[in-house]
# Entry
Amino acid sequence: MATNNAVNTTLSGQSGTGSFAGTTSPSFTTPVLGTPTSGNLANCTGVIHTVTKQSFTGNGTYTPTSGMQYCVIECWGAGGGGGGSANSGAGGLAVGSGGGAGGYSRTVATAATVGASQTVTIGTLGTGGSAGANPGNAGTATSVGSICVANGGGGGPTSAAGAAGGTGATAGTGDIAATGATGSPGTTTVLANASGSAGNGANSPLGGGGNGRGTQGTGNAATGFGAGGGGGASANAGGTAAGGNGTAGFVFITEYT
# Structure
């Protein structure tokens, strides 16, 4: 004998009821779905849907796009210059070391944190040491107000084979604050005629370090952003030589509205 059993169904918060009567199929009232409200996918209310990008290669002002809710700010500090070289002796080689790379910082900031605007300062590249026993100059920091700061790389030392390269930038300010890479030292090998090369500048995520000179001449400049310059070299009493320049800093901002 069949028994009567109450049957309940639930769909999106609405319910219908029915019952088994003997061997007949259950009968249900039709559930009624509620009307979509704010927050449901049907309305997409409050969902971030627009991305805007701003970049800076020179000093300026960051003014948020209207409706910006939050942004990701990325800063790269400037690279240091390569070391210059004193005049080598006859049959000798004198070299400078490579400059260090600038650091990298990343910060997620809300519209309230940014406010109406923030001052953008792009790190100035470190120039190479002038011809002679002169170290390279350090790059300077890149910043967006005090919210995000990436420090500059150090200049390469001068005319000392085996001397350490220019120091990489120290960590700055940000949710992520990374140091920069260190430039490479110059090397020489004393044979009948000295051989070797000046130090290479350090690479950055956005640029290549300048190569150090292996023969008489000025160190090569870095490319891109935030990399170190190469060291200069003097060969066989060929005269003094300058180091190569590093590269400037950079700012990239991704906005979400």
About this structure: The chain has one helix and 15 strands. The first strand starts at residue 6 and ends at 11. Confidence is low (pLDDT under 50) at residues 1-24, 30-44. Helices lie at 111-114.
